[in-house]
From TrEMBL:
One of the GO biological process terms: secondary metabolite biosynthetic process
Family statement: Belongs to the thiolase-like superfamily. FabH family.
Pathway the protein takes part in: Lipid metabolism
UniProt-recorded name of the protein: 3-oxoacyl-[acyl-carrier-protein] synthase 3
Every Beta-ketoacyl-[acyl-carrier-protein] synthase III N-terminal domain range: 118-193
Residue ranges of every copy of the Beta-ketoacyl-[acyl-carrier-protein] synthase III C-terminal domain listed in the record: 235-325
Alphabetic keyword roster: Acyltransferase, Cytoplasm, Fatty acid biosynthesis, Fatty acid metabolism, Lipid biosynthesis, Lipid metabolism, Transferase
Tree of life domain: Bacteria
UniProt-listed Pfam families: ACP_syn_III, ACP_syn_III_C
GO molecular function: 3-oxoacyl-[acyl-carrier-protein] synthase activity
InterPro entries registered for this protein in UniProt: ACP_syn_III_C, ACP_syn_III_N, FabH, Thiolase-like
Length: 327
C-alpha cells in the first residue's frame, strides 16, 4: 500500500452571498380569476392560505429560462462575469423531464463554460440545501464562485381543477452568487427529514399531478420547523435576538406567521421583519426564499449586511435552514 498522502484542497476562510436576483412571470392570477373555473372565492383563499394573487408562467417560459434571468441579475449585482463562475447549482423539483438537468442548460444560456453543474431536488427546502453545498464548495476550494438558482414551474405539475393545490402554487425563480470571504457570511445548515411523512406530498407517477395532505403538512410545519430555525441560529453562534429578518419558505401565510410567533416567543425581537411574499407571489417552492428576500430588499425592508434567517421545508419531507448576511 502506498504511503502517499492525499491532501485536501484549501479554499476561502469563509463564504458569503455576494449577489441576489429574482424573476416573476408577467401573468398575474387573482383569486377572482381562479373563481371563474374553481369552486372558490377571494375570501375563502385569503382565509386559508393568505394568497391574494400569484404569478403563472407562459407557455414559452420554463425552469431554465426563468432561472437564467434570475441568475443574470444575481451575477450583475455580485459583479461577476460568466468567466468567474466555476460551479452552477439549481434547486428544482419541476423540470418536465429529469434529463438533461437544469444547471448545465442555465450555464449555457449565460455563457458559463465547463462549470461543475448539478441539480438539487429537496423540493421547497432546495434553496437552503443548495446554499450549504455552495458555501462548502467555496470553503473547501472546490469552487471560487458558485451560482445557485432556485427555479420552479409548478403550474406544469398542478391540476388546474384541484382547488386545494391550484390556489397555492405558482411559478418563478430566484438566484444568489456565493463567493469566498475573509469572515464568515453563511452559517452552518440545520437540516433533516421526516421519513415517516414521505407520502404527504407526492406525485404518484409520470401521468399525475402534485398531491398533498394539506392538514398533515400544516400540523408538521407549524410544530417542527421553528425548533429547526432556532437550531440554525445556535449553530452559527448567534442568539435569536441577533436575527434581523426571517425568510421562511412561502408555503402558506398561516404557517409563516405561526413560525414567526414561535420564534419571537423564544427570544427573537418584536421588530423582527418577516417575509410574507406568499400574499402576492404564491408558493414557488425552492424559488420562494430568494424571491421573497429580493423583493423585501426592493421595498427597502432589508439592508445589506443584516442577518437573515432562512428556513425551507416541504416535500420529502425535508427541511433546512441557516443564517447569512444579506448582500
Amino acid at each position: 500500500m502506498s504511503g502517499a498522502v492525499i491532501r485536501p484542497a484549501q479554499g476561502a476562510p469563509g463564504a458569503r452571498v455576494a449577489g441576489l436576483g429574482h424573476y416573476r412571470p408577467d401573468r398575474v392570477v387573482t383569486n377572482d380569476d381562479l373563481a371563474q373555473t374553481l369552486d372558490t372565492n377571494d375570501e375563502w383563499v385569503r382565509t386559508r392560505v393568505g394568497i391574494q394573487e400569484r404569478r403563472f408562467a407562459g407557455p414559452d417560459e420554463s425552469v431554465v429560462s426563468m432561472g437564467a434571468i434570475a441568475a443574470a441579475k444575481a451575477m450583475a449585482e455580485a459583479g461577476v462575469t460568466a468567466a468567474d463562475v466555476d460551479a452552477v447549482i439549481v434547486a428544482t423539483c419541476t423540470l418536465p423531464t429529469q434529463i438533461p438537468h437544469a444547471a448545465t442548460q442555465i450555464a449555457g444560456r449565460l455563457g458559463i463554460h465547463a462549470p461543475g453543474s448539478f441539480d438539487v431536488n429537496a423540493a421547497c427546502a432546495g434553496f437552503c440545501y443548495g446554499l450549504e453545498v455552495a458555501a462548502q464548495a467555496v470553503r473547501s476550494g472546490a469552487a471560487t464562485t458558485v451560482l445557485l438558482v432556485g427555479s420552479e414551474k409548478l403550474t406544469d405539475w398542478v391540476d388546474p381543477t384541484d382547488r386545494a393545490n391550484a390556489i397555492i402554487f405558482a411559478d418563478g425563480a430566484g438566484a444568489v452568487v456565493v463567493t469566498g470571504a475573509d469572515t464568515e457570511g453563511v452559517g452552518p445548515v440545520a437540516w433533516g427529514s421526516a421519513e415517516d411523512l414521505t407520502e404527504t406530498i407526492n406525485i404518484p407517477d409520470r401521468a399525475s399531478f402534485i398531491h398533498q395532505e394539506g392538514q398533515s403538512v400544516f400540523r408538521w410545519a407549524t410544530t417542527a420547523i421553528a425548533p429547526v430555525a432556532e437550531r440554525a441560529v445556535r449553530m452559527a453562534g448567534l442568539e435569536l435576538a441577533d436575527v434581523d429578518v426571517l425568510v421562511t419558505h412561502q408555503a402558506n401565510l398561516r404557517i409563516v406567521d405561526a413560525i414567526a410567533r414561535k420564534l419571537v416567543s423564544a427570544g427573537a425581537r418584536d421588530d423582527l421583519r418577516v417575509a410574507r411574499d406568499i400574499v402576492t407571489t404564491g408558493n414557488t417552492s425552492s424559488a420562494s426564499i430568494p424571491v421573497a428576500l429580493d423583493r423585501m430588499r426592493a421595498a427597502g425592508e432589508v439592508a445589506s449586511g443584516e442577518v437573515v434567517l432562512a428556513i425551507g421545508f416541504g416535500a420529502g419531507l425535508t427541511y433546512a435552514g441557516q443564517v447569512f448576511r444579506c448582500p
